[in-house]
Amino acid sequence: MPYIDPHIHMVSRTTDDYQRMALAGCVAVTEPAFWAGYDRSSPQGFYDYFVQLTEVEPKRAAAHGIAHHAWVCINPKEAEDPGFAREVIQLLPEFLDKPNVLGVGEIGLNKNSKNEMAILEEQIAVAAEHDRLILVHTPHLEDKLKGTQLILDALKRDGRIRPERVLIDHVEEHTVGMVLDQGYWAGMTLYPDSKCTPQRAVDIVECYGDERLWINSAGDWGHSDPLSVPKCIAEMKARGHTQKLIDRITFANPKAFLSQSGRFSV
């Protein structure tokens, strides 16, 4: 069955992963800008990364019948130096005009610091000024609840932001409710041993329903699995969920959110 993986860092994956994903039914991916596995030393490093996202990866994906779309930003993990971060932010408008770029992301918080918050707010403003979608990274473990609330507060402070055009990713059991209650979309990231396992993600669907929820694999530099979405599909089938519900979580929902960009196609 066809599915969309709406948050996966394919720059960290081999071409064989594209092939395996295609065989499993993946028809489209979106790739947010994030950490490269090391801290970049210059804005030029980000410029080259954005070129990779907008020119190289779409060709790799297309060779396996997968549509590739991207997001651009400076990620929170590298946003502790505001001067450096602002130089990167100045690069964003050029790439926001690329035909496969959906918006600004994944922005957010890592350690909930004042510098991270300042850069988050400035990138929210960029998205508002260019009328682009936003994809948000929420912190890990014990910082997630506090960080998610700080992020929601920052989005609310910018009166131009419409919640239905923002995806708050990496939600877990203790944050998904607050995200959905305020009208945002929520993403569940499927990791083998952190964030949400496929089993926990299905538990959340069973508790909160299927409105404004999606699942993704992230598939980044750490311990991750680019086939997490089809494994979650298998878990839903094992629990007896309908094909309609599975399609909604894995295809219809991400398509509905991403199509608001006017640039997403399957």
Automatic annotation (TrEMBL):
The keyword Metal-binding applies. The keyword Metal-binding applies. InterPro entries: Metal_Hydrolase, TatD-like, UCP005295. Keywords: Hydrolase, Metal-binding. One of its GO terms (molecular function) is metal ion binding. It comes from the Bacteria. Gene3D superfamilies: Metal-dependent hydrolases. Belongs to the metallo-dependent hydrolases superfamily. This is Metal-dependent hydrolase. It comes from Algisphaera agarilytica.
